[in-house]
Design goal:
single chain; 415 residues; alpha/beta; Rossmann fold; 2 domains; 7-stranded parallel beta sheet; 6-stranded parallel beta sheet; 15 helices; 41% helix
């Protein structure tokens, strides 16, 4: 293997003959675990789409709470220690995956994360199956060794990028040629994230669980409680708001980073925000959670590859304030469906939140309508699934592949 990630890869596994007659094609998706997050949600959604299309969906991971969603959809989950980044563990997983590929008659291997992708890459070569990847973010790493480690995501026969932002990085940093690159934005399940489908009882239950105060606007930041998600910036921005008639709700796991969680609690006291901030942990009913929010904030200090929170919130008709970098530039229309503010600019973040909270009911309803329309036009999960299955078909059946499903540009989406 070349140590230079910018060079082409002559050893990329090539396309195989058509899937065996008399059985449906089988796709293996490989990722570290199925706990929570955008990678995991996309894996489940594609498994569901495969089964619905009459294909076989097989997923290999270390397991997790979302395994039942794979199995409930009719897919197969195989538990393997794919979370490991240990080189010896990665090497052992090559054998495990090669055995799985042969045993399950896998036709195509789709890797979604770097460490298991290395195992999947060599297992695909070993068994003669085509290998493809999805870039879920712009992988950092200035050192040569780190770039080489990341480069496995560029070694697919086809490489999916979840946004134009990620696609540009895949080309510029890792040399993915345009004929191998497919831009397929993440999708949102518009049947699940639909304001009309959320019964008021769900709002009442969640409001009681979180002990929200009646009549006070809710500023919500969903996402794991980790430093780069912007919790500190949001606290400082909230402290600058002219009135304290709000409640700030952090939705997301805070058990994995107890030190940072305690740091946030200390900062709340230092800024005089006691009684205005709640860390409520994970939420299984995010559609209802968004309905409780008057404004949803995505304040990540580092660019996100796509930014699922902003899309889901807009699908629910919530005003969104997001940082002006990464995938958010492709999902939020400033002044139309939300606000974009410079990363780390606490004054601009505070100003945008204040404007969102000050919207009249009519202006709020108009923004909600535009946001929902944008999501329907560009980010419906069905578009993502159709485009991904088109890539699978393109690889396995090159003489009969379906035309790629294009995603309209944001410009003109509301025209």
């Amino acid at each position: 293997m070349s140590a230079d990630p910018s060079t082409p890869f002559p050893d990329v596994p090539g396309a195989m003959p058509e899937a065996a007659a008399g059985r449906p094609p089988a796709v293996l998706q490989v990722l570290p675990a199925l706990v929570t997050g955008g990678v995991e949600r996309g894996t489940v959604e594609i498994a569901q789409a495969l089964v619905k299309a009459g294909w076989r969906a097989v997923v290999a991971s270390a397991g997790g709470t979302m395994v039942r969603e794979i199995e409930r959809a009719g897919g197969t989950h195989i538990t393997l220690p794919l979370k490991t980044k240990n080189p010896f563990g990665i090497r052992r997983n090559i054998r495990h995956l090669a055995e799985l590929i042969e045993r399950e008659n896998i036709d195509l291997v789709h890797a979604r994360s770097r460490a298991p992708a290395w195992s999947a890459y060599f297992a695909a070569k070993q068994t003669g199956r085509p290998f493809m990847t999805t870039f879920h973010n712009v992988y950092g790493g200035k050192g040569r060794l780190k770039r080489w480690y990341n480069s496995v995501m560029a070694r697919g026969l086809r490489v999916i990028a979840i946004s134009q932002f990620v696609g540009r990085a895949a080309t510029k940093i890792y040399g993915v040629e345009q004929d191998r690159l497919r831009i397929i934005p993440r999708g949102v399940d518009l049947s699940r994230f639909d304001p009309e489908m959320v019964h008021p009882s769900r709002l009442v239950q969640l409001s009681k669980e979180w002990q929200l105060k009646d009549g006070l606007p809710v500023v919500m930041l969903p996402g794991r409680v980790t430093r780069w998600k912007g919790h500190v910036d949001l606290l400082h921005a909230a402290q600058r708001l002219p009135h304290r008639d709000f409640q700030l709700v952090f939705v997301g796991d805070h058990e994995q980073k107890p030190g940072f969680r305690d740091e946030l609690i200390t900062l709340v006291k230092k800024l005089g925000l006691q009684g205005h901030v709640q860390l409520v942990g994970d939420c299984r009913d995010m559609a209802a959670a968004f309905m409780l929010a008057d404004v949803v904030v995505s304040a990540s200090s580092e660019p996100e590859g796509f930014g699922r929170i902003a899309v889901e919130a807009q699908a629910m008709g919530r005003p969104v304030v997001a940082t002006d970098h990464g995938g958010s530039r492709e999902t939020v229309l400033p002044g139309v469906t939300g606000w974009l503010v410079p990363p780390g600019d606490r004054g601009a973040l505070s100003k945008a939140i204040g404007e969102a909270l000050a919207l009249t009911p009519a202006a709020r309803a108009e923004m909600a309508s535009r946001a929902r329309a944008l999501m329907i036009h560009n980010f419906d999960t069905r578009l993502m699934c159709a485009a991904t299955l088109a890539v699978y078909t393109e690889i396995l059946f090159p003489d009969h592949h379906a035309e790629p499903v294009a995603t309209p540009a944001l410009e003109g989406a509301l025209g």
